[in-house]
Amino acid sequence: MLKRYIENLSLVLTLSLLAVYAGNDKSGKKK
pLDDT tens-digit profile of 11-29? Predict the structure, then answer.
């Protein structure tokens, strides 16, 4: 159970990081 929880957590963190990176990339192009 714990392993599955960690896998889900890492997946959410990865998606969040990708979303933040994409957002920074868009705002960075304006510079």
Answer: 999 999 999 988 887 776 6
